[in-house]
Amino acid sequence: MQDFKRAMRYFYRYLKRYWLGLGFVVIVTILSTYFQVKAPVYMGQAITELSRYLGEYMNPATHATASKTPFYHALEAMMVCFGLSAATMFISSFISSRISAQTSGQMRVGLFGKLQRMTIKYFDTHQDGKILSLFTSDLDNIFNAMNQAIFQLLSQLALFIGVIWMMFGQNVKLAWVTMASTPLAILIAWFVIVQARKNINKQQEATGEMNGYINEQINGEKIIITQGLQQASIAGFAPYNEKVKQATFKGQVYSGMLFPLMQGLSLLNLAIVIFFGSWLVVHDGMDKATGLGLIVVFVNYSQEYYQPITQITSIYNMLQLAITGAKRLSDVHDQAEEVNPANGHQLTTLQTGVQLEQVHFGYQPDKEILHGVDIKVKKGEMVALVGPTGSGKTTIMNLLNRFYDVTAGAVKFDGVDVRDFDLQSLRDHVGIVLQDSVLFTGTVADNIKFGRPEASDEDMIAAAQQANIHDFIVSLPEGYATKVNDESSVFSTGQKQLLSIARTILTNPAFLILDEATSNVDTVTEARIQAAMDNVIAGRTSFVIAHRLKTILGADKIVVLKDGQVIEEGSHEALVAEKGFYAELYHNQMVFE
Ligand SMILES: Nc1ncnc2c1ncn2[C@@H]1O[C@H](COP(=O)(O)OP(=O)(O)OP(=O)(O)O)[C@@H](O)[C@H]1O
C-alpha cells in the first residue's frame, strides 16, 4: 500500500499539469462508451423492426402498408453510434498518447536532472546497471502503462459500468442472468493472473541474474581469454539461461491461458443468455419481434460485458510493473541532493591555502575511516599524500572537493569551511585529475574544452601543449576534430590521462587535486605525464595522491597516512632521515623499480 501511495504521488507530480487534457480524455471516453453501449439498443430495435416488417409483409391484410422505414432508421442510428464511438475513441486515445509521451519525456528529464544534483554517495552505493535500468526499464514500463494500460483501464471501466447500466435499463432479469457468472470469471482471471505474475517475477529475477553474469564475463573477457576459460564461461552461462527459459515458459503458459479461458467463459455465458432470453420471451408474454430484438441486444451486451473483465486483468501486470517503476523513481526523487548553502561564499581565488582540521569521517556512521586528520597546504605549495592501500587517501580527496561532508572537524579554504561556499564556485576553482580518465562522446576539442566550452582555440592548444599531447593530436588525420567514442577510440590510457590533464589546465583551477595519474602506463608515457603534471602544478596550490614515490620527490611537503591517521609529515629528505614508515616505503620501492 505504501508503494502504491508513493507511485501515485509520483504520477500526480507529473500528471497534475495535464489535468485539463486528462479531464477531456475522461469525458470523451465516457462519451465514446455511451455510443458503444447505445449501439446494441439500436441493433435490437433494427431486428425488432425487421421482424415486424416481415410479419406485416407476409400478412395479406397489412402487406400494402408494411414499411421498412423504422428498420432503416434504427440501422442508421446504430451506424451513427458505432461511428461516433470509434471517432471519440480515436480522439481520446490520441490525446492520452500525447499526454503520456510528453509526461514520460518530462519524467526522463526530471530523472536525469535529479541524478545530476545527487551526492556522490548515491553513485558510490548504487551499481551503474541499476541506475541505467531506471531509464531503460522503469521509465519504459511507466510509459507503456500510461500509453496503453491507463487508457484501457479508463475505457474498460467506463464500458463495464455503461453495459451494466444499459442492461438494467433494457431488462432487469436478463441483466442478472448476464452478470451471474461474474464471480467465477473474476476468480479464474485472478488465479491465472497471480500465477502469471509469480512466474514473470521469477523470469525477471532470473534475467537479472543472467545479465549480471553476462556483465561480469564481458568485463573479465581479457582474463577469460588469457586463461583459456572460454568453455568454462559458456558452461557457467547454461544454468542461468535454463532458469530464464523455464520461468519464461511457465509465465507465458499462464499469460496465454487468460484469453482462451475468458473467451470460453464468455461464449458459455452467451449460450446461457440466449437460452434464458428465449425462455423469457416465451414466458413473459413478450411480442416475438420485441423479444427477438432483446435477445440480440443481450447477445451484444454479454460479449461487451466480458471484454472489460478480460482486458483489465490482462493489463494488471503492466500496471503492476508501472507502479513498481514509479515507486522506484519516487525513491530516487526523495534521495538527498548536494547541499548548497543559501548565499554561500564565493571562492574567487585562493589567498592563503587549504586546510584539514581534526577531520573525522566515515562512509557509514559506525565505521570511521579518518580519525582526526590535520593537513595544511599553503598557497602555491605542492603537498603529496602517501600511504598504504585503504589508508584513506582517496577519502581525503573526496572531502576536499566536498563529495562528502566531514563527520567532525572541518575542511577549510582560506580559513572558510567548505560547507559555507557556494558549491559551483568551489568546484569552479578546484581541478581534479582522477586515476581513470574519462573521455566523453564528441571531438578531442570538445573533450579538452569540456569544463570551459567558451575557451578559445588558442587557449585549448596552449593547454594541450602544456599537457604534452598537442603533437599527438595534430598527428591525427583530423587533429582536434577527431571523434572520440568507444568503438574507434584511438587513445591509450596514457593519452587519455594527458587529455584529461589538458582539460584541467584549461579550466585554470586555483587548487589542484591529482589522484595518482601515472598508474598503468609505460615508462616513456609516464615521463610525459610527469612532465605534464609538473606543468599543471607549477605556480598552483596542489594536492597529489601518489603511489610511486619518485613522482613526488619535489613536493614541498609529504604527508604519510596510515589507517586514517597522519603518522609522518615533512620533506622527502627529512622523512628519509627520520627512518620511519616513509623511509621504509621509499626504500622498498627503490628496490623494486
Ligand atoms: N564509497 C565508500 N563506501 C564505503 N567505504 C568506502 C568507500 N570508499 C572507500 N571506502 C573505505 O574507506 C577506506 C579508505 O579507502 P580509500 O579509497 O580512501 O583508500 P586509499 O588510501 O585511497 O586506497 P588506495 O591506495 O587503494 O586507492 C577503505 O577501507 C575503503 O574500504
TrEMBL record:
Compartment(s) where it occurs, according to its Swiss-Prot or TrEMBL record: Cell membrane
Pfam family membership, one: ABC_tran
Gene Ontology MF annotations: ATP binding
Membrane spanning stretches: 18-37, 77-97, 149-168, 174-194, 258-282
Keyword Endoplasmic reticulum: no
Keyword list, A-Z: ATP-binding, Membrane, Nucleotide-binding, Transmembrane, Transmembrane helix
PROSITE patterns: ABC_TM1F, ABC_TRANSPORTER_2
Residues covered by the ABC transmembrane type-1 domain: 24-321
Occurrences of domain ABC transporter (ranges): 354-588
Alphabetized SMART domains for the sequence: AAA (SM00382)
InterPro entries: AAA+_ATPase, ABC1_TM_dom, ABC1_TM_sf, ABC_transporter-like_ATP-bd, P-loop_NTPase, Type_1_exporter
Top-level taxon of origin: Bacteria
Record membrane topology: Multi-pass membrane protein
Record's keyword annotation contains ATP-binding: yes
Gene3D superfamilies according to UniProt: ABC transporter type 1, transmembrane domain (1.20.1560.10), P-loop containing nucleotide triphosphate hydrolases (3.40.50.300)
PANTHER family membership: ABC TRANSPORTER, ATP-BINDING PROTEIN, ATP-BINDING CASSETTE SUB-FAMILY B
This protein's name: ABC transporter ATP-binding protein
UniProt source species: Leuconostoc holzapfelii
Source lineage: Bacteria, Bacillati, Bacillota, Bacilli, Lactobacillales
